[in-house]
C-alpha cells in the first residue's frame, strides 16, 4: 500500500497519541487503587506505645463506677481498674487519657477510633458482641427499678400505660423496648438527665443497672428500689474495637493478672463498699 508522507505523519501522530492514552489509563488505574496498610497483630499496641498514652472511655456521671469529682478528676470503680491497665501497658497510670462517654456512643467511639478501650460499665449482650470485642468480665449485674417511696413500683404490672425513664442505648432500653411494649419509655442521653427527670416527676419510675439505682437510692432517701433484680443476670466487661485481637488478648491477660493480685477486690473496697456497705456481698458482685 502506497501512502504519502503527509498520511504517514498523521498515522504516526495518532499512534503516539494512542500509546499515550493507554499509558495514562494504566497510571490512572494504579493511582486510583487504594492500598490498605497491612494490619499486623501488634499494630494497636505499638501505636499506643508510640503515642505514649492509652485512651480509655469512661462515664462522667455514673457514680460509683465512673464520675467526675468536685475537682473535675475521674473517679470510680471502672476508673480504678483502668488506671492499673494503663500502668501495666505503659508503665505509668498517669499515661491514660480518660475520654468521657455516654451509654449510647460507646460503640461508636470504638468504631471511630476515638478510644482504645471502653471501661464504662459496659454490659455484655449478643447484639454488642457483634460490633465490639469484649474482654474478661469483672462485674455481675441485672436491671433494677427505682421510684418515689411515696408511690413505690414493686411490680412491672404497675408500669402498664405509665412512663418509665431509661437511658438510650442501655440494657434497660433494650429490655423494655423488646419485652414490654405496653410501657411507655422516655429516653435520655445522660444519667444526670434521667435521674433529674425522675425527681421532676416526668416518669413514675426509672430503670437502669441495679447496682446504679441501689447506690443512687442510698444518696436519695426519698426513693426506693422496689424491683431490685429484673431480667437475666448479665456481665460487665471492658471492650475494644472489633477485630483488635492484639489488644484484646493483652487486656484479657492483664485482667486475669489484676484479679489474681487482688486489684479488683481493692477497687471494690475503695469505691463500691463505702456505698453499698454490708448490704451486698462482694462475691455476688465481682467475677472471680
TrEMBL record:
InterPro entries reported for this sequence: Bact_solute-bind_prot3 (IPR051455), SBP_3_CS (IPR018313), Solute-binding_3/MltF_N (IPR001638)
GO CC term, one of those recorded: extracellular region
Cleaved signal peptide residues: 1-29
Domain Solute-binding protein family 3/N-terminal per the UniProt entry, residue ranges: 53-275
UniProt keyword Transport, yes or no: yes
Gene3D superfamilies the record matches: Periplasmic binding protein-like II
Keyword annotations from UniProtKB, A to Z: Signal, Transport
UniProt keyword annotation of Transport present: yes
Superkingdom of source: Bacteria
Pfam families in the cross-refs: SBP_bac_3
GO biological process, one term: amino acid transport
Protein family: Belongs to the bacterial solute-binding protein 3 family.
Protein name (record): Solute-binding protein family 3/N-terminal domain-containing protein
Amino acid at each position: 500500500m502506497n501512502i504519502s508522507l503527509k498520511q504517514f505523519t498523521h498515522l504516526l501522530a495518532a499512534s503516539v497519541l494512542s500509546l499515550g492514552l493507554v499509558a495514562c489509563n494504566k497510571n490512572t488505574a494504579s493511582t486510583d487503587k487504594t492500598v490498605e496498610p497491612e494490619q499486623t497483630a501488634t499494630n494497636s499496641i505499638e501505636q499506643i506505645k508510640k503515642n505514649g498514652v492509652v485512651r480509655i472511655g469512661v462515664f462522667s456521671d455514673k457514680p460509683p463506677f465512673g464520675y467526675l469529682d468536685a475537682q473535675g478528676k475521674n473517679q470510680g470503680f471502672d476508673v480504678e481498674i483502668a488506671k492499673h491497665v494503663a500502668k501495666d501497658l505503659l508503665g505509668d497510670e498517669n499515661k491514660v487519657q480518660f475520654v468521657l462517654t455516654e451509654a449510647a456512643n460507646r460503640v461508636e467511639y470504638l468504631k471511630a477510633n476515638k478510644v482504645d478501650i471502653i471501661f464504662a460499665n459496659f454490659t455484655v449482650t449478643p447484639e454488642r458482641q457483634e460490633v465490639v470485642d469484649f474482654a474478661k468480665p469483672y462485674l455481675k449485674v441485672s436491671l433494677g427499678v427505682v421510684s418515689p417511696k411515696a408511690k413505690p413500683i414493686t411490680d412491672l404490672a404497675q408500669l402498664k400505660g405509665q412512663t418509665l425513664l431509661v437511658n438510650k442505648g442501655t440494657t434497660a432500653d433494650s429490655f423494655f423496648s423488646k419485652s414490654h411494649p405496653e410501657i411507655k419509655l422516655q429516653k435520655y442521653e445522660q444519667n444526670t438527665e434521667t435521674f433529674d427527670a425522675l425527681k421532676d416527676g416526668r416518669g413514675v419510675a426509672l430503670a437502669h443497672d441495679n447496682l446504679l439505682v441501689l447506690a443512687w437510692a442510698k444518696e436519695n432517701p426519698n426513693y426506693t428500689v422496689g424491683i431490685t433484680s429484673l431480667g437475666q443476670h448479665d456481665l460487665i466487661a471492658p471492650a475494644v474495637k472489633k477485630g483488635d485481637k492484639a489488644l484484646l488478648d493483652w487486656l484479657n491477660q492483664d485482667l486475669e493478672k489484676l484479679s489474681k493480685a487482688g486489684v479488683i477486690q481493692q477497687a471494690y473496697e475503695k469505691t463500691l463498699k463505702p456505698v453499698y456497705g454490708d448490704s451486698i456481698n462482694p462475691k455476688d458482685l465481682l467475677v472471680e
